[in-house]
């Protein structure tokens, strides 16, 4: 009886299943993102995910604006046919060339911008000429060349006929302005960059381009242990800051209004402001945790959804979150947290709950689809055995950490509480994965061994690297190279 029933019903279920599966994949289910919200997509990773996978992930999450740091053709091209709006960047090391000769700017526009517009496909909206070129650590190297480079790029865009459609700006760090009293109304531009900023602001005002600024409440906390923690977030504070007629409940508002005051004093109070970078890291520092990152992003997105803006700049505001993905090849000069800014891990898996619609719901972003992993293999320290020469351990560890990524092992980080052996295993595995799991990369003078059981321990996650898009390309080129090699041999011996 039961069997008969099963036989009768299963074709029907099959048809149903079939119908469900054949629903066309449309992204209508994609959430409505807070207007104005974009993401930064940096690719300083040892194993970058291929651009088409990322573009699909952005669509799945309803992200409609993206900022990148150069004009890599594969990346820019991956946006063709999507309606995602793009801000491309010019790295600082190209500023001198562009500033020197307007013809270099014409070449740059032709080779890096116009190329993608002929197809009519990529929606390039901004060019950021330089990335934080006025950072104090650059010792003024770019102060005199950023503005001439911007002028030449604008000139080249005008000539190419895109001068109105594509806006020229430059991404400045928030330390180009300061306030002696910490009150926004005492805001002014830094004296050593004042003249350069004044020229730039006049240019932006004239061309209706935005002042692009990177604001990091995390750094307020990182750089100053006495900083009131709640002021870095958006959930309210016991003691707001009062300034003139305004009341400040978070450092973001105070920081942005410091800029508005500085702009006002320089004679351009109404220049548009766009947030070039804002975000929170998840590792590499005691304040960089997934729960703090979740608190920050949920609060920021909820605030953006209200469209209240800041006391001096009420209304909608564009902001690019920093960042989309972790980047394990970034310099850690500013701190170990530098490699952990991603909302998503190195492999496109989300790290914490964040609701891009600004409703504050506890839901994970949609992960990247189609990422290919290397094998289920890890490299760890061998279990203790008298034959192991442990005097090789310190040297092996520094080697592994210099070439791999040990930023999760530092104080306050996700692997800080591992035993000595656990820490060694973590370092060995990092180097092994970055080396594409090559057997030779898991030796360390006989101290290391490959295992197939995941050594992940609580918060201390032992990654398996992905097969990077770069490697796929290299493999392809190698094959092509071999092929031409073989044909050459063939030709020679015939
Ligand atoms: C952009 O254009 C310049 C000048 O033609 C070229 O040298 C450079 O390689 C291009 N940059 C990228 C990232 O494609
Ligand atoms: C800036 O100056 C300091 C001190 O003179 C030096 O150590 C550093 O390398 C310089 N940085 C750059 C980017 O030139
Ligand atoms: C920038 O220009 C100013 C004024 O012309 C000059 O005093 C300064 O030395 C220049 N700075 C650099 C780094 O070239
Ligand atoms: C361990 O290695 C060190 C350095 O090569 C060497 O001097 C020492 O003799 C070795 N110890 C053993 C027990 O093999
Ligand atoms: C590591 O141990 C300290 C002290 O017990 C604790 O406060 C911290 O939360 C631990 N960190 C992790 C990542 O488990
Ligand atoms: C695993 O983590 C716990 C605490 O988080 C720690 O006590 C233990 O030593 C770790 N195991 C290893 C092998 O590091």
Automatic annotation (TrEMBL):
Q: What is its EC number?
A: 3.2.1.39
**From which domain of life does this come?**
Eukaryota
Q: Which reaction does it catalyse?
A: Hydrolysis of (1->3)-beta-D-glucosidic linkages in (1->3)-beta-D-glucans
Keywords of the record, alphabetical order, are:
Disulfide bond, Glycosidase, Hydrolase, Membrane, Signal, Transmembrane, Transmembrane helix
Domain annotation X8: ranges: 377-462
Q: What class of enzyme is it?
A: hydrolase
Q: Which Gene3D superfamilies match?
A: 1.20.58.1040, Glycosidases
Q: Report any Pfam family annotated for this entry.
A: X8
Segments spanning the bilayer are 472-493
What InterPro entries is this protein classified in? GH, Glyco_hydro_17, Glyco_hydro_17_plant, X8
Signal sequence, renumbered to the chain: 1-29
Entry's family note: Belongs to the glycosyl hydrolase 17 family.
Can you name this protein? glucan endo-1,3-beta-D-glucosidase
